[in-house]
TrEMBL record:
GO terms for biological process: mitochondrial respiratory chain complex III assembly. It is a single-pass membrane protein. InterPro entries: Cbp4. It holds the Pfam family CBP4. This is Cytochrome b mRNA-processing protein 4. The keyword Mitochondrion applies. The keyword Acetylation does not apply. Residues 85-114 are annotated as: Disordered.
Amino acid sequence: MSKMWLKMLGVGIVICVGGPALVQSIRPSDEELFKRYNPDLQKRSLEEGDRREKEFDEYVTKLKEWSKSDKSIWFAAQEMEEAKRVQQQAQRDQAKEEARLQREQMRKEMLGEK
């Protein structure tokens, strides 16, 4: 019975260690994948790389802010999105009001000139 246990242990070790090692050995590196891109994709990837890195850094910074809150990260993110939405709505309302005032001023000028 102990031989069977040793065989099973050996097979388990081979599978647990050998499987990931095999996957790691056949997985292409990032440079190899980049070389397989067509020239247009390589160019676009290089151009957008800085922007994507910046967006990722901003996202990580936001996650750090949210994690400092007493609430769940999801609730903190939801509150931030709601505050952002309210701010955007306020900006739209302000722009509409400015446009309305400008139209009124133009009407007054048109009526005053006639």
